[in-house]
Specification:
The protein is α+β, with helices and mostly antiparallel strands. Strands 1-2-3-4 form a 4-stranded antiparallel sheet, with helices on both faces. α1 packs antiparallel against α2. It is globular and about 35 Å long.
Amino acid sequence: MNDALITQICLQDIDELVENFCFPWDTQEKTEAKWKRYFEEHQKDTRTVAIIKRNDEIVGYGSLLYKSEYPLFEGVPEINDVWIHEKHRGAGLGTALIQCFEALAKDKG
């Protein structure tokens, strides 16, 4: 984790996220639409999107949705869509990202 940086998403990150994290079960268009929506929600402060960089390359991401989309958990912050590139797993990056989101959720009350 020492050589990794957790930072909030910026508009310039979207192209790299689409390129590096377009999965076989999604199309590039759907992936791009998702990241644009996440960025808009991040700008509106309804979601915090964080990325993990190593050597200026995005190797992971996750988001904290401040109000769950599930009716039973309305008003409960939800950590979702956490992903670490398989080459970088096992280094504590996902754990660090989740701890970051837990601290943010606690601070928001």
